[in-house]
Amino acid sequence: MMDEVTRAEIDKLHDRVSSLKERVVNLEAQQPHISAALVRIEEGVRGLYGHLSKAIWIVVALLIAAVAKFILSGGLSIPHLTP
Q: Which of 30, 56, 65, 76 has its Cα between 20 and 30 A from that of 41?
């Protein structure tokens, strides 16, 4: 026959196991919502990546246009020094 201390320890363990089971059930219930949120986040990141990529191309194109304008306006020519 079990003594009171052993019985109390078994009851504590039973309570802990029950608590862990409840946590697992709650996490399993939340999993679809978490998955849906992750999908929305991934889609948002893809959209931001697309916008960032376009912005980088625009900046590069403007830089190339500025360099071309500088060269075509004679920016690389060396002025003649006359005494």
A: 56
| Three-state secondary structure string covering the chain | CCCHHHHHHHHHHHHHHHHHHHHHHHHHHHHHHHHHHHHHHHHHHHHHHHHHHHHHHHHHHHHHHHHHHHHHCCCCCCCCCCC
pTM for this entry = 0.51
Span 63-68, average pLDDT: 96
Beta-carbon count within 10 A of 26 CB: 10
Higher-pLDDT residue of 36, 2? 36
- The residue that leads in pLDDT, 1 or 58, is 58
Counting every residue written for the chain, the total comes to: 83
